[in-house]
Write a structure and sequence with these properties.
By secondary structure, the chain is mainly alpha-helical. Helices cover 56% and strands 11% of the residues. It has one domain: Winged helix-like DNA-binding domain superfamily/Winged helix DNA-binding domain (Arc Repressor Mutant, subunit A). 13% of the residues are buried.
Length: 124
């Protein structure tokens, strides 16, 4: 990841949009290529890292780790580490993450209705 200059116009505009618009705030938290799929799979059940990586599919290890850290920092995902060798790490949704389920379902219904490619893959 890279550092964003806090005084940049772009960063100021992003912050203004997030502070004034709750939809922008929500999309900032769940937006991106992989976060929706991660949240979808964790809404089904808690998963270990390898299970989650297989479920999401073509995501790289680096990107999955980065997305999980962002979701954890945004308090949408819990990373539970049990002391064992090798480490036993389980990911699950926080209460805030669980409350996103109806939002994600509504977005999925909208996407199904308006997408041009009508083939549907139930992976997300």
């Amino acid at each position: 990841m890279y550092a964003i200059k806090e005084s940049s116009t772009h960063e100021e505009n992003r912050q203004t949009a997030m502070n004034k618009c709750p939809v922008s705030y929500t999309l900032e938290r769940i937006g991106g290529r992989w976060k929706a799929q991660i949240l979808f799979h964790l809404s089904q059940r808690a998963m270990r890292y390898a299970e989650l990586r297989r479920a999401v599919g073509s995501v790289t290890e680096k990107m999955l780790i980065q997305q999980l850290k962002e979701l954890e920092n945004d308090k949408l995902v819990i990373r539970d580490v049990k002391p064992a060798v090798p480490p036993h790490v389980t990911y699950s949704l926080t209460q805030a993450g669980k409350e996103l389920a109806p939002v994600m379902n509504a977005m999925a219904q909208w996407g199904l209705k308006y997408r041009e490619d009508k083939e549907y893959n139930a992976g997300c």
